[in-house]
Amino acid sequence: SGGTTAWAALAPVCERGSGVPAAHTRPSRACPVRVTQRAWVYTQSGEVKVFPLKIPVRMGGGAAVTFEGGRGAPYEAMEPQLATARYERSQVWGIDCAESLEWRGWEPGGEYVRSLVVKNVSTKSLKVKYKLPATKYFSMEFPEPIKLSPGMSATVDVTFRPVKREQYDDFIEFTVPGGTFDVKICAALPVVSVEVPPSLDFGYGAAKETHDRHFAFTNSGELAVDFEWKVNAPFTFMPRVGRLEPGHSATVLATFAPLDASVNVANAVCMLDGGLYSAATKVTGIGKYPYVRLSDSDIDFGEVIVGRTVEQEVRLVNQSVVGVSYTVERTAAEHDHVYRVGGPGLVQGPGQVPEQARGHRGRLAAESNEVIKVSFTPAMTGTFTSESFRFVTQGGNVATLHLRGTAVGPVVTLSTSALQFGSIAVGATATKVLYIENASDVSAHWQIDAECLGTFGLDRDRGVIAPCSSSHVTLTFAPVEAANYHRRLMVVLRDRAPLALDCVGTCYTDKRRPAPMFQSHVQDYRARCTAGILAPGQPPGEAARVPDEEEVTAQAAGELTTSAAFTSLFFPDPLLAMALDARDVDFGACSRLRLSEYKVVTVTNTSAQKLTVFWGGQDQLQAGDTSAAAAAAAAT
């Protein structure tokens, strides 16, 4: 007052009587300032006065300090900006010491000592006195004055002797030149406390499925605690019980398993030490029914060649706002193992799941879709297969996928269905080339059911044709007697019906020359026998009716059917006039030192006419024999 400049204790202490601060420090950033309701102010006369202050809560580079009843003067705040009791003591009286002493982790009957350091931070010597605490549980040495030079410190020991487990509070009063201050002393009880999240939200969840969340809670107290979580269905916590040491954390697996579409809210209570203490977390979740569908519920693979695998794709769409798990199941327990959906193994019908079955399972996120691969691998030519698969969710939603396809063999054709060798003399040979064409994109395995060194010989009797290519076989006509010759050779194919090849030729000598025979004669003969005009082996007479063109065409078309082709492999031709009781003769293991046992082959004339029979074929030791029988004979 009266024009005297005054500086608050928040500013650096100035020299007595100077009236100006010793230094000013600008803070690095604006921050809140907390001050007491009074301030000590030095005047030019050296007196210390107390004025109530009104200071702005937030200070920047500078602020105005206004004294009640006086005028405001701007000043710059200095560090530290939080004015505490310890800071006030150091600025006003030049004494620095802790604001309080606290004991923790104590037990009744013990003795615990803590030290209080008192330091002179002023530029002059100070004399410090203290009073003993009022309670008997805190004790100190007899209070004697302590003289501290500038920068010196003294240590005061305080002994705590508890007798009960309860809270203890007291204070030590210090007297310095110009005033007094208190240092609080207390012994707090051990704190039992855990920190849990205030809430746990599962959001939307599919009904009848389990949804997981993890969260952690911490023992923030001073004692180890035994905990037990209690929460109502459809929520569960694991682990439910346990023990947690001070400062440690534990992770809890929380699960939400809604049974229907509903809103679920529960309080999960963490009971501590048998219920003496507790903490709670709010748990929420909403159950929703999922809905999944297929972009295409019916897939037709059409005709697929055996040995190939054809894949198609279908999308499984989740139209709900919740993620959903699904499982693929077959609707039939027995199946041909030609369809696969999603994975290498599928779960079959209920109660029919083998141990090795690995059902394709997946999960769709909310409002998403997944590409499901469907494959068809046919196993047998000429079969039609239809199966159904179900995409089942735990909530009861089912989407059914129907599959169908037909297995076909490779497209293999012969360059001709008949080879006409013409007329040749005994001892001469005639050759023809047969081309076997594969028009498929898979390899074709073929074999001709005939011996390589027969009357109609083969340069090879089996092979493999690459995709979309052809192979050829050279046939040799080598007759040994003057006669007309006809033989039907069957070309056997893997995964396809056999193909028939008719070979026709005539052999003559100077003394005997049969009339030439052609394929048309063979077709007319078969047509007469099929129409009942002639019996097998019966020569046509003058009165015999000539079959018309329709009968010949019908007979030729009937011989090309699949059933007729397969029948000719296992049964003799019913239109032949003779029959053998065995097609193969096996002599077993033979010694080269003696003759083997003989075998009997019976030749039967099934017609009403007299027949002349002779053995034919080529020399089995001649070069070029590539038949399997000749190779085996050469090996032995």
UniProtKB/TrEMBL annotation:
Domain of life: Eukaryota
Coiled coil location: none
Pfam families per the UniProt record, alphabetical: Ig_CFAP65_4th (PF24507), Ig_CFAP65_8th (PF25248), Ig_CFAP74_1st (PF24771)
Domain CFAP65 eight Ig-like: 292-385
InterPro entries: CFAP65, Ig-like_fold, Ig_CFAP65_4th, Ig_CFAP65_8th
Boundaries of every CFAP65 fourth Ig-like domain copy: 419-511
PANTHER family in the record: CILIA- AND FLAGELLA-ASSOCIATED PROTEIN 65 (PTHR46127)
Name the UniProt record assigns to this protein: Abnormal spindle-like microcephaly-associated protein ASH domain-containing protein
